[in-house]
Each structure stands twice: as structure tokens, then as C-alpha cells.
Amino acid sequence: MSDQIMEGEHDKFLTSQEFQDIKAAAYDNLLTRIEELGAEFGRWSRTAIQQFVNLDVDGFVRLRRIPLNENEVRLIADALTKELAGLGPLEDLLGDPEVEDILINGYNDVFVSRHGMLQRETLRFTDNNHLLRIVRRILAPLGRRLDESNPMVDARLPDGGRLNVVIEPLAVDGPMVSIRKFRKDPLKPSDLQELGTFNDDLFTLLESAVKARCNILVSGGTSSGKTSLLNALAFFLPENERVVTVEDTAELSLNHPHVVRLESRVGSFEGTGVVTIRDLIRNSLRMRPDRIIVGEVRGAEVLEMLQAMNTGHDGSMATIHANSPRECLHRIEMLAGFAGFQGSESSLRRQIAGAIDFIVQIGRLSNGRRRIVSVTEVTGVGDNIITTQELYRHESYLSPEGEEKDRWVSLGIQPHTPKLQRRRQNPSTALPPQGRY
């Protein structure tokens, strides 16, 4: 009980204006000392900086006769060490494996996503200048500039995460920072199965579809788990195949021995040197790929992707933002139209139907859990409409104990594609042994 009281007092102090004011004054005092040390400070280790800060803060508090107890002095010293040697208030969040997204709406408004659920954090920055200083420290090793002439930045972090920042004058209420974190060890299919993303039947179907070189689109909304599912599907790829990944910001981390990773380039400040996903897909066709995986289809690259899937690069995969399989097909048509597709509507639909075998719809439920909500096969074109058949549909139900459970309802239809002919001939395909992936 006493530990809970002490923890509550810590949180109360950390979120107080008093903490921010004392930390700011101690920080200014530290900067004066660091200027006196000159280049020597830059050679110090994290441990040496921690010791230096502890001594300096202790002396600063005693000299100013600031009424703080020992624990409060330690909290200020720890915060200043992170400020000088790390990423300030962001350091603990970036190191927390449960944190998926960090969303900052100005210096005193921080939200964090854990297990698919957003919650407000108690931490805050001193002011918007403090927040910008930390963000620029993250961007400095990446060679990216953030100022009034370049007020939007989208960058890939060294650990594979993604950082997006918008500042004034585009952001009205201070810097808007979005950080998407990714696991260092990608989730395996068995991990997703244990988490309840899909069941045994879907495991078997997805494994069969990937190994039979079916073209798969993973469709879903923001933060629904599209990239994690795509990473998991890569565990089913044969090791003797060459896989080329094409992304706007490299996020995929495929567990495969032969992966060529390509990332688009935004170009210089003058607008030169731009390399789009469309350029990369077109070039990847000359790199002898067995499969092409597009991180996210969002623009003109949809035409190159469809052509690749229709010209011998079976087994390719991609993700796309859409709320349902039918909306996914509509979005592909719309993107192809924006990209300047020259043929008729019927020829475009035939090309789409010929390219895509399965649409795997994944969603984030109201409780934050990620679930495959539908597996739909694209079967062809009829009456100038792309025809589909849903193979599995997710349903939630309450157990007798009142607990929310998941089930996937099979509609009793076997896949139509010739690539899965063996599955049709033997519908009771044995389940993979536990721990295989």
C-alpha cells in the first residue's frame, strides 16, 4: 500500500508545474557547466553524464534551498540525464515494448496506444520549444530538416519505427508528432494465432495460399495490424525464393534469408531526385524477383502492381487501406483511374480479377484486439462486376460466463482458384504441427 502511495506521489510531482519549473532552471544551470567543459563533455559515457547530473542537481537544489526530498531530487536528475543523453520524456515510452503508437498534440497533450487502445499519458514537455528540441534530436542523425520552410517530415527511425511531424504554421496548436513503433522480432503466424488474430482453419488456408503462390491483398484500417499480418505471412515463403519489398517508408521486417528492401525517396528541398513507389516496382521487375511485396498501395503504383501480378510474379502481396473487401476493390479501381489507366472500365476490372486471388480483411475491434474479420476470394468478372466469394467471416459472441469470444464461420465454400486445386481435392488438409512457424 505504501508503494502505491509513493508511486502516486511520484506521478503527482512529475506532472506538476513545480517539477517543470525546477527542471528548466536546473537545465539552464547544467548548460552553463557543459559550456565550461567544452568538447570534453561530448566524450562522456551515459554513466558519467548520470553521475555529473546527480552531483550538479544536488548542489543546485542545496544552493537555492529548494524544498525537495531525496526522491524528488532523483526524479529531476533522471529527467535531466534523459534530456542530455537521450530523448527526454520520450525515452521511457520508446523503450516500453507494450507501446505501439505515441501521439503528441502539443507539449502537454500526449496519448499512447497499448494493445490497440489509446490512453492519455501523464508525462508532458516543458513547452513546444522543448518538444521541438527532442524531435530535432531524433531527426539529426537521419539528415532530415524541420523548420518553417519544411514544416512536414515523415521519416524512418533506425529501429524501424516511423516518425511523422507537422509544425507551425500548418499545425495550429503546436507540433503534432506521431511515432509508430515496430517490434524488433516480428510476430510469427503461431504468435498471431495465440493472440487470437485467427484460428486453426485460417492458419491452414493462409499457409496454403502463400505456398501456392496466390496473390494476396491485406486490407484494413489504420493500426489494424496489416503490416504485422504481412510480416507473419512471410514465414510461409519458401527459403529458396527471392523476395523484393517496396515501401514508402520501410516498415516490413521479413523473416526470410533472401530479401531485397527498397524504399522510396522524397527528393531534395528543390524537388529533385524524387523516386516513387511506382518507379521502384517498375525497377524491381528487372531484379529477378520471385515475389514482390508492396508495403502499402496508395497511389499510381497500383498499375505496376497489377501488371506484375498478371505477368508471372504470382505469390505477390500488398496492404491497402479499406474498410471491407468490396471497398478494397473499389479503391483499387479509383487509384488506377487517378493513375491514368487508359483502358475501359471492363478491361480494368478483368485485370484486377486476374491479378488478385484473396483479400484478407483485418480489423481492430472496439476492445482493441486485432482480428481477421473476413477472407474473401476474387473469382472473376460477371455482368461487368468483379465477383467474389467470402470463405470465412469473423463473429463475436458472449460465453455463458459473459466473456466476449471469437469464432470464424466457414461458409462451406472451397477456394475457386486452380492454385489451390489440391486443397479442393482434399478439404480436410491436416493442420500444421504446433510451433512450426
From TrEMBL:
Species assigned in the record: Oxalicibacterium flavum
Domain Bacterial type II secretion system protein E, residue spans: 84-361
Superkingdom in the source lineage: Bacteria
Annotated region described as Disordered, given as residue ranges: 414-437
One GO MF term attached to the UniProt entry: ATP hydrolysis activity
Classification via Gene3D superfamilies: 3.30.450.380, P-loop containing nucleotide triphosphate hydrolases
PANTHER family, sorted: TWITCHING MOTILITY PROTEIN PILT, TYPE II_IV SECRETION SYSTEM ATPASE
Annotated family: Belongs to the GSP E family.
One matching Pfam family: T2SSE
Listed name of the protein: Pilus assembly protein CpaF
